[in-house]
From TrEMBL:
GO terms for cellular component: cytoplasm. Glutathione binds at W77. It comes from Paractinoplanes abujensis. Residues 316-325 have a biased composition (Pro residues). Gene3D superfamilies: 1.20.1050.10, Glutaredoxin. This is Putative glutathione S-transferase. InterPro entries: Glutathione-S-Trfase_C-like, Glutathione-S-Trfase_C_sf, Glutathione_S-Trfase, Glutathione_S-Trfase_N, GST_Omega-like_C, GST_Omega/GSH, Thioredoxin-like_sf.
Length: 335
């Protein structure tokens, strides 16, 4: 399976299944405890967003989560982490099966995160950007006591604006560099990425979070790219002007979030490296996974408290993850 565009610039296919799960069920899928299953891969930054938001909002008991392995082939993500290679709730080996139940012969990407309707076994949506917004806005009846407001109405215009340029230049920007097929396309993406990271550094030098004085959806979206920067994007995608650890403001910001419950404890560096270095064979044909980088710095003091801010606003931190959802020993960073 080829990822690099030999013609030059990488363009992400953004044709998703846009059906929504809403409080009023207007698309035919009302919010219901226990009805749906969120399928993720810890390796994937887009899925990691959903893992974090679900955890921060305390939706574990109402929206179950299936975890695919870190690698996949051209057909699908697979449930090779489960004992018999099948998701224990959906009973399938490949996420592709749930897509085909909804749309036979589905020809677009079999992507994570995806939410599956358990009774029918059909994918409801894989629209990753809308999924997390709906977890905040449509599932509020089932949020835990003390859940933060990640997408408050009074800040939505600002959050949306930040999300647009962070997606274009950073979240997708690293892929535009990594999957570029010409020198010119790569250099354009490289320059755009680091110009945006420099602007974000300027912004975050004076405020603890991207929008307002609490963690919002915007911080979740930036974090999942920063968490993968040195482990994958710096080397594998040639985003090598600077490591994250060499950008002082962003490194401190990322550590602040990493040390916040729900962020670092959902980050699996082993899966991250396996995914990028094994799956993208046209970039790394040997499939060799790098031994580094050193991860110990993620738990060092960040000093961001001096900027003020309250991570969860009037809310509280989430409790520890359920035992079945703990990142495996040796895959993350432990105190």
């Amino acid at each position: 399976m080829a990822y690099v565009n030999p013609q030059g610039e990488f363009n992400r296919d953004q044709r998703y299944i846009t059906t929504r799960i809403t409080a009023d069920g207007r698309d035919g899928y009302p919010v219901e405890p226990g009805r749906y299953r969120l399928v993720v891969a810890r390796a994937c930054p887009w899925a990691n967003r959903a893992i974090i938001v679900r955890r921060l909002l305390g939706l574990e008991d109402v929206l179950s989560m299936g975890i695919a392995g870190p690698t996949h082939d051209e057909r699908s993500w697979t449930f090779d982490l489960d004992p018999d290679g099948r998701d224990p709730v959906l009973g399938i080996e490949r996420l592709q099966e749930a897509y085909f139940k909804r749309i036979p012969g589905y020809e677009k990407g079999i992507t994570v995160p995806a939410i599956v309707d358990v009774p029918t076994g059909q994918v409801v949506t894989n629209d990753f950007a809308q999924i997390t917004l709906d977890l905040s806005g449509e599932w509020t009846k089932f949020h835990r006591t003390g859940a933060p407001k990640l997408y408050p109405e009074e800040l939505r215009d600002q959050i949306d604006k930040v999300n647009r340029f962070v997606f274009a230049d950073v979240n997708n920007g690293v892929y535009r560099a990594g999957f570029a097929g010409t020198q010119e396309a790569y250099e354009a993406a490289y320059e755009r990425l680091f110009a945006r990271l420099d602007k974000l550094s300027e912004l975050l030098a004076g405020q603890r979070y991207l929008v307002g004085d609490t963690i919002t959806e915007a911080d979740v979206r930036l974090f999942t790219t920063l968490a993968r920067f040195d482990a994958a994007y710096h080397g594998h995608f040639k985003c090598n002007r600077s490591k994250l650890t060499e950008m002082p403001v962003l490194w401190a910001y990322a550590r602040d979030l990493f040390q916040t419950p729900g962020f670092g404890d959902t980050t699996d560096f082993v899966h991250i490296k396996q995914h990028y270095y094994i799956v993208h064979k046209d970039i790394n044909p040997t499939g060799i996974v790098p031994a580094g980088p050193d991860l110990s710095g993620w738990l060092t003091e960040h000093g961001r408290e001096k900027l003020g801010g309250r991570p969860f606003g009037d809310g509280t931190p989430p409790p520890p993850p359920p035992p079945a959802e703990v990142v495996p020993a040796g895959h993350g960073v432990t105190p």
